[in-house]
Amino acid sequence: MNQQLFEQKISELKSRRGADSASVEAVDAIAATARTWLESGDLIKIHRINPHQVQEQSGVPVARLVPEFLHGVRAQLFDLHWDVHCPHCNGITQEYGNLSEAGEPGECLMCEVEFDVDFIRRVEVTFSLNKEILDLNLPPVCAVPDSLNAKYLIHGLAPHTVAAGEAELAPGEYQYYCPLTFSKGVLNISSENESAPLDEDGAQLLAFDQLDGKFSATRLAAKPGKIRFRVNNLSESLAGLILKENRLGPEIPLEELGPRLSGLDLTHYPVFRRLFGDQAPSEREKIKIEAVTVLFTDITGSTEMYERLGDTTAYNIVRDHFDILIQEFESNGGVVIKTIGDSLMASFTSNIDALKALLPLRERLEEYNRDKPEGKQVRIRIGMHRGPAILVNLNGRLDYFGTSVNKASRIESVSRSRELSISQEVFEDRRVLSFLKQNGYRELRKRSARLKGIDGDQPVYSLAIA
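Above: the chain's sequence. Below: its structure in token form.
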């Protein structure tokens, strides 16, 4: 490790333009955590730095850590990884350093299965020290989930060394594999098999070589009982050996994997958009998103305002109102996708974050309108919906496409002035009603509306907001 370069980059990050005391505290927390993991030899954690684990170690919230990681990427202190995980084994099947490299579908060689790459469930964002500081020369790898009941038999087997590990095995079929070299084999344990050669203590001995990208033996058999695995690493790569049942298990629930920064999470940091705004899928690729909260806003009576006040004055009012919206949205986990005339499209990772951004607008706009003549006051309407979407490249920037986006836009168009209207899907989120009641909103007006391009009458729930 280049310790001098590491300390130099940490110092540069703390003194960057715009860094405040909270930024310095976050950088110090990241640096201290990295030093701890390096000293303890926890290579997986340092090879794939999870901001949530840094929070657990340091107590500094993820929301303050992630911006410093991103600034650190720009400063060449860290490298950024978009890691695609298999839904069945959680192995990293693909990584890319830029969203332009993203593609569908995902494929796990260990599980021999293809899967949809969802931006929330399958894409995790991690960081590592820049290779100029520390190059572990490891492929992308992560810890094996507890739900697989896997047995770690051999750890960190260096090139041209031999190591052994053992396990007591009942009848069944097992997969032995190395996630570092993507090697695998199948072991059959049955009382009908011939015994493998016995080691000096009576354990059955299964010995084979780790070659470049494969094991020398891919099918083995033994009787039930104590099995010793001896691996001779003839490759130039670090290797290991893990044993699990040889079956394709169900998809692993996200809750079992622990907190992690999803692809969708990262793209909702405004600093990501500012520093890496050119990162987007290629124009022919798209990324699926299980669910995202989308909202549209619009100034009511804007056409008349432009005619009455003239383009320059009206435009300045529109910009003022954008400044208010953007500040509230970005302060509550949202990002602005685009503005269209005097309309704005934004997204959030949750309905509650969106409401936290929207409810203060009443006071903010009342304050803005105070002492202004009626003709220069701003009145807005808002439509909000949550559902699946796809992330696309539109003119080199991240954008969303799909029915959910259209529905949010159509709900905004039937909303009234100073009103927030939400879809049935948002209304059915139990946290939404609880949050609204806690903030003094006791009633929502329900009505049926015809939304252009969407079949049938749609229930819409509205409340006065701005």
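The mean pLDDT is 93.
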